[in-house]
TrEMBL record:
The organism of origin for this protein: Streptomyces adustus
Cytoplasm in keyword set: no
Name of the protein in its database record: MerR family transcriptional regulator
PROSITE patterns: HTH_MERR_2
Signal peptide boundaries: none
The keyword DNA-binding appears for this protein: yes
UniProt keyword annotations, A-Z: DNA-binding
Alphabetical list of SUPFAM superfamilies matching this protein: Putative DNA-binding domain
Domain HTH merR-type: 1-69
GO molecular function, a single term: DNA-binding transcription factor activity
């Protein structure tokens, strides 16, 4: 198969295939005498597996680690792994359809919030944040939570929102610390002091959801919505809270 043929077969673009080559995810195939790449069944299976893993929300670095474990496996084993990926994706889609059905019923009954539809878990959480609704950071965080509510799988979303619920009594202080950094630079001494205060308010249950290495696309998007000093303080607070949690383990 030529690059256009394998791309069409798997459901991606030739540009995507070249990108996966460049990222080292998809090895370059042998070339024919005319210089064109020649793809076979194994390359098609590998490309399909990369696509499915990416569609499950994994970063390319995570996909690379998973594929490294596939090295040396027989084709049947790789196909079985691909089947597992498809099963997970099917379950994820079914979860989203179930959520959509519930929200559709709410919408038809006129019970959807202005910035909804929201899950029942997020609705309960936001109901407890009344005292901080005048905080600019709280308003941004509401948008962040609505975003996460719509993109996270049910199990992860439920656990994260339950952990956030443990901060309700400290939310006013938490947002006040961040509001105070709206005009601060990342190297402002107040950033480090505020980070220590923020870390004290973060429960261990919430720290368990923080990334252990470089942040992914979702975290980067959320931080991009904050002022530089706020983002620096929150990143430092997350590291402090994670270190504290590990020290207690």
């Amino acid at each position: 198969m030529r690059i256009g043929e394998i791309a069409a077969l798997v459901g991606v673009t030739p540009r995507t295939v070249r990108h996966y080559h460049h990222q080292g995810l998809l090895p370059e195939p042998a070339r024919l005498g005319n210089g064109y790449r020649h793809y076979g069944l194994r390359e098609a299976v590998l490309l399909a597996r990369i696509r499915r893993l990416a569609e499950l929300g994994l970063a390319l670095e995570e996909v690379r680690d998973i594929l490294a474990d596939d090295q040396g496996r027989e084709l049947v084993e790789v196909l079985e792994k691909l089947d597992d990926d498809l099963a997970r994706q099917q379950a994820l889609l079914q979860d989203r359809r179930t959520r959509l059905h519930v929200l559709l019923v709410e919408a038809r009954a006129g019970r959807v919030a202005a910035d909804g539809p929201l899950s029942p878990e997020l609705t309960r959480l936001l109901a407890g944040l009344g005292p901080v609704t005048d905080s600019p950071t709280a308003a941004k965080d509401r948008d962040h939570l609505v975003f996460l509510d719509n993109v996270l799988p049910q199990e992860q979303r439920t656990g994260l929102l339950a952990a956030l619920d443990g901060m309700r009594d400290h939310a006013e202080r938490f947002y006040a610390l961040l509001d105070g950094l709206a005009d601060s630079r990342p190297d402002d001494p107040e950033v480090a002091r505020a980070a220590e205060g923020l870390a004290e308010l973060i429960p261990d249950a919430l720290a368990a959801y923080f990334p252990v290495s470089d942040e992914g696309a979702v975290q980067a998007a959320l931080f991009a919505d904050l002022a530089p000093g706020q983002a620096a303080a929150l990143r430092l607070a997350m590291r402090l809270a994670t270190g504290r949690k590990e020290g207690r383990a």
